[in-house]
Design a protein that fits this description.
With about 160 residues, this protein is α+β, with helices and mostly antiparallel strands. The chain contains three helices and eleven strands.
């Protein structure tokens, strides 16, 4: 007997996902909920087609030219080259931030420990006060606009070294 099932939702097995994000999933069987199953399939097909078009911010083309860091929020969800001077750096051990402005809500570049060794050392201090150009997707995480950098090729120093 063929059983048609769908697992709907998002559930990452991490403390943050379970406690802070309140992620959960629901298992539907076509036999037990045929109307819900059919509606879900229809919505998923429409979403897939829309995702293949330019209707979603993640499908938009890369922003042309260079964007001053202050304008980055206007390009949320898009890949852009953002330029500015790193005003502050912070290494929390679990993540490092290169901050363009002194405020908590100013754009920041994010690097995770797995990539620390790829960047100029001492990291992140060697980038403090440097004019940089970062390339990546502008995202919003926990209320902060940021670009996650996985490789140093996404971060160009425009004056001095590293």
């Amino acid at each position: 007997m063929k059983r048609l099932l769908v697992l709907l939702g998002s559930l990452n097995l991490s403390a943050n996902s379970l406690n802070a994000n309140r992620e959960l999933s629901v298992l539907l069987q076509k036999k037990e909920a045929p109307e819900a199953f059919a509606r879900l399939l229809s919505v998923m097909e429409k979403d897939f087609q829309a995702g293949a078009s330019l209707k979603t911010p993640f499908a938009l083309p890369t922003v042309e030219g260079v964007v001053p860091w202050q304008e980055a929020p206007r390009y949320f969800g898009r890949v852009a080259k953002v330029e500015g001077v790193i005003q502050a750096v912070e290494d929390r051990g679990t993540v490092a931030f290169l901050k363009f402005g002194p405020g908590e809500s100013d754009l920041r570049l994010v690097v995770f420990p797995r990539s620390y060794g790829l960047f100029q050392q001492p990291f992140p201090q060697s980038y403090l006060g440097k004019r940089v150009r970062a390339t990546g997707r502008i995202v919003l995480y926990a209320g902060y606009y940021e670009i996650v950098l996985d490789y140093p090729s996404a971060l160009e120093v425009l004056d001095g070294s590293p």
